[in-house]
Amino acid sequence: MNAPIVSFNHVGKTFEVDGAALEAIRDFNVQIAEGEFVAIVGSSGCGKSTLLRLLVGLDTDFHGTIEVDGKPVTGVGSERGIVFQEHRLFPWLSVEDNIGLGLVNEALSPVERRQRVAAFIELVGLTDFARALPHQLSGGMAQRVAIARGLVASPRILLLDEPFGALDALTRQHMQDELLAIRARAKITTVLVTHDVEEAIFLADRVVVLEPRPGRIKQVVNVDLPHPRQRASFAFHQLREELLHELTHADHYTPVAPIQVRDVPLAFIAV
Ligand SMILES: Nc1ncnc2c1ncn2[C@@H]1O[C@H](COP(=O)(O)OP(=O)(O)OP(=O)(O)O)[C@@H](O)[C@H]1O
Ligand SMILES: [Mg+2]
């Protein structure tokens, strides 16, 4: 691999909750090459959002180092864009003004700014809602505004935390295709957090499987399937089975004692 654009080195994160230490991340090591697409999957609470917050620079209190272009992350930077798990739109700003916030650090003329915002509103299919306020949108529409805001400044590194979770299946597939098209035009390095194994395989070059408490890497799976990927293909299906197995089988599985049914009338078992 060439010098990685993103490097997590022995990253650990512990929160304090009610005076007790809660170890959220342990010894997380991942190197990401420029232009690579990495998906992180894992059960709820295993530290996925925490990892993205650390990489985007919103939380600098952690162990180990995170480097971008070989320099330690010490705060937020415009080369890193994030779409949060909750959309975090400003309720008093219209759709176009919320998206325009993604351009605050860009040196653009007002006309260029308007054109860029309009192009991304169109991309997420909200042209008729450009002047609408967030409370006039559905959850999925609000999430699409957040996606447009994350993409509008063309960041070199894009962090996506469950960005398509609130979308219906058709819109979700459409947004996945668009994300791949945007990446094909501009080599954006992408880190996607998702619960959806199929989404991870459809989009990513590598899938990092986390296991919980504390969050740590269980396995890293390369997805060597050519694009456009066929969800119905055998290879796709096989990878999905492998990843689902990784996600659902704990290393230290304790078998549950078999239920004793000997003395119980069958009628009771049925209800
Ligand atoms: N600010 C915080 N203070 C204390 N504990 C926190 C904080 N943020 C996260 N945690 C804890 O860290 C762990 C990881 O949380 P995180 O939000 O990263 O999980 P996640 O993998 O994104 O889960 P989900 O899939 O449900 O979004 C959880 O146990 C959570 O309670
Ligand atoms: Mg999360």
CATH class of the domain at 34-60 and 75-79 and 155-270: Alpha Beta
What is the general shape? globular
N-to-C SSE string, H for helix and E for strand:
EEEHEEEHHHEHEHEEHH
The CATH architecture designation of the domain at 34-60 and 75-79 and 155-270 is 3-Layer(aba) Sandwich
Give, in spatial order, the strands making up the sheet with the most strands: 6-7-8-3-9-10
- Give Rg in angstroms: 21 Å
Low-pLDDT parts are: 252-271
Q: Main β-sheet: number of strands, strand sense, barrel status?
A: 6 strands, mixed
| Number of discrete helical segments | 8
Mean of residue pLDDT? 90
Give the helix proportion (percent range): 25-40%
Query: N-to-C terminal Cα separation, in Å?
Result: 58 Å
Quick structural overview:
With 271 residues, the protein is an alpha/beta fold. The protein has a domain at 34-60 and 75-79 and 155-270: P-loop containing nucleotide triphosphate hydrolases (Rossmann fold), CATH 3.40.50.300.
Give a structural overview.
The protein is α/β, with parallel strands linked by helices. The chain has a domain at 34-60 and 75-79 and 155-270: P-loop containing nucleotide triphosphate hydrolases (Rossmann fold), CATH 3.40.50.300. Helices cover 32% and strands 24% of the residues. The protein is built from eight helices and ten strands. It has helices at 48-56, 95-100, 110-123, 139-151, 169-185, 197-203, 234-248, 266-270; strands at 6-17, 20-32, 37-41, 63-68, 71-72, 80-83, 157-161, 189-193, 206-211, 216-222. It has a six-stranded mixed beta sheet with strand order 6-7-8-3-9-10, sandwiched between helices. Helix 5 (169-185) links the parallel strand 7 and strand 8 (189-193). Helix 6 (197-203) crosses helix 7. The longest helix has 17 residues, at 169-185. Residues 252-271 have low confidence and may be disordered. The protein binds adenosine-5'-triphosphate (ATP) and magnesium ion (MG). Adenosine-5'-triphosphate binds next to strand 1, strand 2 and helix 1. Magnesium ion (MG) is lined by residues 48-49, 85, 161. This is ABC transporter ATP-binding protein. It comes from Pseudomonas lundensis. It holds the Pfam family ABC_tran. InterPro entries: AAA+_ATPase, ABC_transporter-like_ATP-bd, ABC_transporter-like_CS, ABC_transporter_ATP-bind, P-loop_NTPase. GO terms for molecular function: ATP binding; ATP hydrolysis activity.
